[in-house]
Amino acid sequence: MYIGIQFSGYKLFCEESTLEFDKITNINVIIGKNNSGKSSLLDVIEMAYDEASFKKQKRQIGLIRVNIPITRDMVQSIFSEYRSIGEWNAMNYWKKVEGRNVLIELGGTRNAKNPSAYRVINTDDIPIIRYFDRALHDFEQTKNNYIFRRLSAERSIVPEKEMDLELSSTGEGASNLVRAFLNNSAYDERVIEGLVFNALNEIMYPEAEFESIRIQQTKIGGEDVWEIYLKEKGRERVPLSKSGSGIKTIILVLLNLIVVPLQSRNDGKKIVYGFEELENNLHPAMQRKLFDYIYDFAVENDIYVILKSKGIFDYLFISS
Predict the structure, then answer these.
(1) Can you tell me the distance from the alpha carbon of 229 to that of 173, in angstroms, rounded to the nearest whole number?
(2) Residues of the chain where predicted confidence (pLDDT) is lower than 50
(3) pLDDT score for 312
(4) Do 266 and 303 touch, CB atoms closer than 8 A?
(5) How many CA atoms lie within 13 A of 142 on its CB side?
(6) Which residues have a Cβ under 8 Å from the Cβ of 297 and sit 6 or more positions away?
């Protein structure tokens, strides 16, 4: 959707200078030391793509501008009430602007009267630019079809009481998500037993090979909870909560990529992912396999993934 994102006035980034995330591709890597603004940059990307996040934080940021390609639908919208505007009609105008981009400013603290407003701010070489306001309704509708999914650096999977929990950035809701897909007739259990399970083995093999993934009810502190169990070849079945952090990270990535898009609440939505420090507690060989899987998945499904890292993924990305 976006060619790039510009912003200023957010946390470490001052009002006086505008920074730009100038190229968004299927795989994007943010690398930097602690307290260098990596999380803030991820916040801004989340605000740009996710309407709910933007509404929640719009008064904390100076501005966000998004650079988008001009489409034929936008041109049709501009001329929807006119046969021509000056020397321009829909046909010759499209020939003029095809392949060009337009810069749109979202609301923020600089637009205190209406922080939800959008406006076109280009001043260069695009004729009748003021009429682009007519195309912003289409832009807003498209923007509302995007959501941002974040996986925090602090994450885990634990047993959970049965309830309808959305998978959070820290992994809360993972056990209930697996329970729903394995036990609820509204979902296809093969998503977990097939797609997720096969992807897990693809990433883990030959270090580990699993025979099954199950969800079962158990008691903790006298309460009924649901627990994910993994059966490794030649070993006893083990509750996931007792497994290492690395395998929990891999499963959370797979749940986000494979399962979350199939939930009814996300039907028809284009998901942008922000994964934080996936290298934590993962052996370098496993990091490479996980990264390769994410890269292939993003390219094959034409989705955007932003990886935030302290530096390990720099080596992985360059060597892929």
Answers:
(1) 15
(2) 313-315, 317-320
(3) 54
(4) no
(5) 12
(6) 257, 303
| Alpha-carbon dihedral sign for residues 210, 211, 212, 217 | negative
pLDDT at 112: 64
| pLDDT value of position 123 | 65
Per-residue tokens: 181: 């897909």
pLDDT in tens, 223-237: 999 999 999 999 999
pTM, entire model:
0.90
pLDDT value, residue 244 = 94
Report the 3 state secondary structure along the chain.
CCCEEEEECECCECCCCCEEECCCCCEEEEECCCCCCHHHHHHHHHHHHCHHHHHHHHHHCCEEEEEEECCHHHHHHHCCCCCCECCECHHHHHHHHCCCEEEEEECCHHHCCCCCCCEECCCCCCCCHHHHHHHHHHHHHHHCCEEEEEECCCCCCCCECCCCCCCCCCCCCHHHHHHHHHHCCCCCCHHHHHHHHHHHHHHHCCCCCEEEEEEEEEEECCEEEEEEEEEECCCCEEEHHHCCHHHHHHHHHHHHHHHHHHCHHHCCCEEEEEEECCCCCCCHHHHHHHHHHHHHHHHHHCCEEEEEECCHHHHHHHHC
Tokens of 178: 């697996």
